[in-house]
Amino acid sequence: CVPSTYVAVQYSTFFFYPILVGFLPIVIASSFSILAYHNVRHIVRRQLPIVRRKLDKQITAMVLMRVIIFVCLVLPYVTYRIYTVNFPTSRSMPMAYAISRLIQAIITSIYITNFVINFYIFIIFSPRFRRQVKLVLVKKCWQRWKYLCCCINNRIDPNNNIQPRNSQTGSEENI
């Protein structure tokens, strides 16, 4: 069963890119961030320590920023992919084809940064996360690397494998 090109274009244009890649992830991420924001607003009424409330507000701010950046990085990719599926550029026009490929490379790079950006968002917005990263990188990883790679052994160990060179030991073994 080989689907026709028309069916594949229709599927990509009306379902795959707009719904599965674009709308559904954005709606799910936005709804959960709104639920988190709503939950943090109700935490003020509960009797929780101030530090806990502060941390909850901080994580909610990070989630909201994550969703905003997610939307900004996904929408250009989805709109460009729908455009290229419906209006493909022919290879017979080399300049237009090269421009199309350049735009595709730039937008795909922007879309891929979506998967890397979490670390940088958390570093920017969370002092606690910065402290944890510093602890892990400097105190744990750096010390381990320093020990494994730059270990200079300055100790002198006695060599217990010295065998005497007497001719008597050889003659005693023959007896």
Task: Give me the secondary-structure topology.
Blueprint: H1 5-43, H2 50-86, H3 94-113, H4 117-125, H5 127-149, H6 167-174
Helix pairs in contact: 1-2, 2-3, 2-4, 4-5
Description:
The chain crosses the membrane at residues 14-38, 59-83, 103-125. This is G-protein coupled receptors family 1 profile domain-containing protein. It is found in: Membrane. The protein is mainly alpha-helical. It has a domain at 6-126. It has helices spanning 5-43, 50-86, 94-113, 117-125, 127-149, 167-174. Helix 2 runs antiparallel to helix 3 (94-113), helix 2 (50-86) runs antiparallel to helix 4 and helix 4 crosses helix 5. The longest helix has 39 residues, at 5-43.
Largest sheet: none
Give me the strand/helix succession.
HHHHHH
> How much is the average pLDDT?
81
Head-to-tail CA distance between termini: 89 Å
Descriptive keywords:
mainly alpha, 175 residues, single chain, 0% strand, flat
Can I get a quick summary?
The protein contains six helices and no strands.
